[in-house]
Amino acid sequence: MNEFDTNIPIYLQIMNSIKQHIVAGQLKPGDKLASVREQAEAFSVNPNTVQRAYQELEREGVSETRRGTGSFIAEKANLIPDLAAQMAHEVIRKCIEGMRALGFTDAQIVTEVERALEHSRTAQNSGGTH
Amino acid sequence: MKEIIKYQLKARKGAIQLLLAIFGILNAAAWAAEIQALAHRTNEFTPMLAFWIPISVGVTVCTVIVMFFLCGAGHVDALLYKDTSYLMLTIPRRGWQILGGRFIAGLIEFLIYAVTAGVLLSIHLAIGLLMGENPGFTNFFTALGTSYYQVFIVNAEAVITLTLVILSVYASSGILLTTVTVASRTLVKNRGISTAIGVALFVIVTNWILKFATFLGTTLDLAIPVRFRLENAGPFRIADAIHTGTITSKTFEIPLAPFILFLLLAAALFALSSWLLEKKVEL
Amino acid sequence: MAVILETYSLSKSYFKKSALAGIDLKLESGRILGLMGPNGSGKTTLLKILAGLLKQSAGAYTVAGETDSNRIKGLVSFLPDRNTLYPWMTAADAIAFYADFFEDFDRAKANDMLSFMKLEPTHRVKAMSKGMIEKLNLTLAFSRRAKLFLLDEPLGGVDPVARERIVSTIIKTWTEDSAIIISTHLVNDVEQIFNDVAFIDEGKLILSGDAEALRTERGKSIDKLYLDIFEDR
């Protein structure tokens, strides 16, 4: 019930959750999305909120509605890579925002990111946990 | 309105059973004492009789009198002063349906008490007749049967007239009580104060009505004769009764106007209280 | 979207004070409205007027276009903050009562919900715990196919499991052609089921609007918004 951060619009969070499922492969193109009511009950949110999320997903081309049958994940060739890129860019944007707030210049940001990537590679290779 | 009657009776079921049980037990105790006295053929008033007869008859009669008013008002206090009132006032029913249904249920409840009381008291009477030497009943059922015969068959007209008269008083006093209770509830929320207001209004209005009724009775010349008489039946012989000085026929004149007034008033007050309940009562 | 409820300058005043002052609300079908405000702000007064238990001093309201107060009672399902069932009734009696008096009562649904809530039909109200009575009242209120559901503090004094069940029942009962108003203090636990929110204080509507729009606009939860509004009042 408290899975959602109530400080940001819930419909956006529902959309993100669905997009994440698509990128992770749990929802495949052509899969049917749960009905508005089922989804609302599962998330414990208002059905209108789910409806809004579905409508926005359709506007973004992530899903399509077939009259009488429901909403389905769009069967677009580049759906998953496009979504992944979109979501990645969102993560990166937040990161850049955060770093700039800490006073880093763009060049410093790139350096820090490379250093962090190096760090995680070595950690992976040694097989240890951080 | 049918459902209102049904649920009101259901709600009163427990109370009715309790009161009838009390009637039964007290009166049975009195009958036991009476039968004992009968068996010993003593005509003295034993302490047992002195205790049980007044208690049983007293409780029975007093309860019927109290219920005359409470049932007449359709137990309107339960309608207006409990949390459960929310239920009655959120159902899509008009004021007259709610009050009308409760009135009818109240009448049914009252008749249960009144008829039971009548039967119980008639049994006392029958036992009493067995004790007397004149006219000399020896069989309980003959005594009972003859009493009923004299009352309901010989005096059928009188019984019917009196019943209608009593019903008109029942209806008007009950509906008046309902109206003042609903009215005081619309004015004041506090149960204590509104009961006080209600009682005061009831007394004042009843006073006016009675004055007006008396006035009408004397001015308008509408009267109905009510005749009481007795007949030869069973071991009961009028000749013997005359011999002992019992009158066999007496006629009273009852002015009709007041009772018609009561009925008209009941109708008007019913309309008023229904309107108040629907438009003015707040919980 | 059909308009389920519309109030026009609804006011209620008693001798000394004004409980409601000129409330203008509009609620469309399929929406859930959260009515929030401190104790004594007028939430219960508003709901009672809509339910027909209080009469307004001024102003008017329509439910699904209906103005006749008796017909409105047939369209509104009110869940008060107290028990209103007769102590002598069993759960089955209560269901029969509702079925007898409300045309839109769904008996089958009520029986289903009764077992979902783990209540016995033969259990008497006077023998039930407070929590069980609340569940029964909820069952009865939601088994009606009403146009407008009014829930007065449905979550007060209820444990978290029951709270979840109540929220879940509300979502299950939601339909496209009815509307729900929920008055509550416990904003945090339920704000995700609200479409619309209205903040009321001292009988006046301080703020109302779409919950998600407010989240975007103010950048904070409805709960925090409540604190902002009422902290210094």
Instruction: Report how far the terminal alpha carbons of chain C are from each other.
Output: 36 Å
Q: Specify the structural class of chain A.
A: mainly alpha
How many beta-strand elements of chain C? Answer: 9
Number of helices of chain C: 9
Please report the first level of CATH classification, the CATH class of chain C.
Answer: Alpha Beta
Low-confidence stretches of chain A: none
Question: How far is the N terminus from the C terminus of chain A?
Answer: 31 Å
Strand content bin of chain A = 5-15%
The CATH superfamily label of chain C reads: P-loop containing nucleotide triphosphate hydrolases
Describe what you observe in this structure.
The complex is a heterotrimer of chains A (130), B (283) and C (233). Chain A has 130 residues and is mainly alpha-helical. Chain A has five helices and two strands; from the N terminus they run αααββαα. In chain A, 61% of the residues lie in helices and 6% in strands. In chain A, α1 packs across α3, α1 (10-23) packs across α4 and α2 (36-43) crosses α3. The longest helix of chain A is centred in the C-terminal third of the chain and has 23 residues, at 79-101. The two termini of chain A are 31 Å apart. Chain B is built from ten helices and two strands; from the N terminus they run ααααααααβαβα. Chain B has one domain (2-279). Chain B is globular, with a radius of gyration of 23 Å. Chain C has a single domain (3-230), classed as Rossmann fold, CATH 3.40.50.300. In chain C, 36% of the residues lie in helices and 26% in strands. Chain C has nine helices and nine strands. In chain C, β6, α6 and β7 form a beta-alpha-beta unit. In chain C, α3 packs antiparallel against α4 (107-116) and α5 packs parallel to α6 (160-173). Chain C is globular. The interface between B and C is medium-sized, with 23 and 25 residues.
